[in-house]
Amino acid sequence: MDMPDLASTLLDWYDRDRRVLPWRSAPGEAADAYGVWLSEVMLQQTTVAAVIPYFNAFLRRWPRVEDLAAAPVEEVMAAWAGLGYYARARNLHACAKLVAEWRGGRFPEEEEALRQLPGIGDYTAAAIAAIAFGRRAVVMDGNVERVMARLFKVTEPLPKAKPRLKQLAGQLTPERRAGDYAQAVMDLGATLCSPKSPACGICPWRKACQALAAGIEATLPAKLARPERPIRRGIAFWITAKDGSVLLRRRPPSGLLGGMMEIPSSEWRPESWTLEAAAVQAPLPESAMAEGWRLLPGLVRHTFTHFHLELSVAMGRAGSRAAVRGVWCPLDRLEDHALPTLMRKVISHALAKGY
User: Fold this and answer.
1) How far apart are the first and last CA of the chain?
2) pTM (global) more than 0.85
3) What's CA 175's distance to the chain center, in Å?
4) Which domains can be identified in the chain, with CATH numbers?
5) Taking a C-beta distance cutoff of 8 angstroms, is the pair 10, 209 a contact?
6) CA nearest neighbour of 313 among 232, 241, 247, 235
7) DSSP for 16-47?
8) 322-342 confidence digits (pLDDT tens)
9) 40 tagged catalytic
10) d(Cα 251, Cα 187) in Å, to the nearest integer?
């Protein structure tokens, strides 16, 4: 099959077998730019199954980009809690404000203009341009890279092969139905051309797939070996007041888990901490310094993109609720705060081991 025939064959397959997703329009129909943008930001490094309930909840709460822009950023972060990669939520809110205030609620249609908005890179800009506005744009995610590597038998390992794979994807991308085509390739990678056990027998491109013909489809795309993730360590401090409320504080706006609420903790470093050194470094406010810290048994483990984290949890009672950098939160109101998954693990550990 030549390039136009490949695109046409895939679109026929998409019309029959596409995934039905809450942010998608029917084939041939324009999609809402706000919904496309929101879904694409949420889908960055996150599965479709995990995103769907968050997407639906955001749309119920903030049905227009102007509604999201008007919301306090703390509420947006709290609604995002558990989805991970929290810089996305901060950029989501910043982008909504720019679109609502500077563009009257309208997203730009061109990739270059979209890339100027917070949190929108090459992939997201191409996806919005193609899916929401029908622009011919080359949408490249992990699914598309895998499909292209197999279809054209590109054996050069990732990430070096990325430019070649994008070039090939660009040759296939049609002028008409660019948005449907982009979603079709992503669907093909997500449902049939899967990483470990591709369903080649029912693939619409099986006759043209060079990797399948060579019998190496399951080995592509080739990847360079990843370096082993290092381990970092820290101590989290579960501090309760006399009424049982727990001390929370907000992390700095930039950096890992930026702007999220946390159980106060020390710096995360390769070396182990002593309780005394961690309490000073955290730093804990004097009025919240508990006497007789009790180190709970076990560790809280969490994996980030570039490292594994091991947190010990120390428990203590504060003498006063006054003059703290943070908030005292009753146990039954913890869900009101933007607590990332790591901190939810710390809370579960403290409640299970400390009482």
Assistant:
1) 67
2) no
3) 30
4) 3-219 (1.10.340.30), 231-353 (3.90.79.10)
5) no
6) 235
7) HH----TTPPPTTSPPPHHHHHHHHHHHTTS-
8) 556 788 899 988 888 888 899
9) yes
10) 37
